[in-house]
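Bench notes, afternoon.
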Amino acid sequence: MPPPAPPDLPRTIGFWGAVAVMVGVIIGSGIFKTPAQISQQIASPMLILGLWTLGGLICLAGALTLAELATMFPASGGVYVYLREGYGPVLAFVFGWSYLLLIKPFAAGGIAFIFAESLNIMLDVRWDPRVSTTVLLLGLTVINLLGVNLATGVARVLTFIKFVALAAIIVLACALANLSLENFATPASLAAGPIATPTLFAALAACMASILWTYDGWADVGAIAGEVKDPQRQLPRIYILGTLAVIVIYVLVNAAYMLVVPLDELRALAAADPGLSVAAVAMQRLLGTAGAIGILAVVMASTMGSSHSSILTGARVSYAQARDGLLFSFIGHVSPRFNTPDYALLAQVALSIVAVWLLGGFQSLADGFVFTMWIFYGLAGAAVFILRIRRPDAPRPFRCPGYPVVPAVFVLASAGMFALALAQDLRMNLLWLAVLGAGVPVYYAWRAFTRR
């Protein structure tokens, strides 16, 4: 039996606070910009809505799978803990290594970069987005340093703003737009025309990568499991409710966009402006200039909230790794005044700022994040099978419904994402794989160093 873990962070996060953090991570900039990118790849409105539904169902299968692991190991760290228990310290270290150096800096930096770009448009200025992104990341980190109750309170407010804004888009589209089902039929001008990429396979790869980036964050609530009250009962509800809520809102918002901006028009607009926000176009048509300005404010609040929740959850992974002796011990430090993993938060923001200044753009940050994270999502899902075999009698307060089909679907989908990403950009993704692989010799060097 492994030795008992040292005491975790205090359990002060309630059900709604955890749901707000989870949904806050998921809903960032993607739902405002991704639909325009997808319109360049797929010419069928119904296929687009189907892909959004499929992406949500893949994430729901993952949420049901990881909920079983979260109730078995309700400790800070999330995916890191599941990999450690399923595979041992080497893979857990590789994940923690890449999470600290690549995954979380890319995620937090990429989302915050959209905030900075929106701020420039709102104020009609040309500030360097990297400077604004840096200031935002520092400010949000300070909030997280001052206590988890303050951090989850901010997450609640920002998540509420997002949901109200997205619900308003749906209601306004239904009330003010032409409620014609013709907008959901493939336009005759596009039915026989080629899509933007050479093959359907390439189009699906690009679209699913964008959609799953937009859905990402459903797994992050596991990182704060050590601080959730009554975790065995609450965590499955948090995973399921949060994921279902986002699926419904995403599919309905995309349908609302199509009611206001027919797909053939959207494709033309997006071709002229690759950074187009379909939400801005839709709101301008519905409410005029005030609507376009309002949606900019919503995008800023949404990306701020996603970056904030991402910072909150991300630091718990590095904190858990340090507590296991697989990272510098100071990163496992807890503030005696605020009960927060202060040094983990500071290390995370420093690396996020480095990523922003080195890569300097949303797409570069997002692509590296999606590819690396889905490798570990698939491995974490497969850990359910491993633990069912190795520890059949271990307490499982929640069992994944539909086992073994649901976890298998999720693992296969993760493997498919890996293959699609490699096919889309082999050279860059091989570079990310090399970085991940470098974690193995670093682990053995670390163990030798700590023993000495």
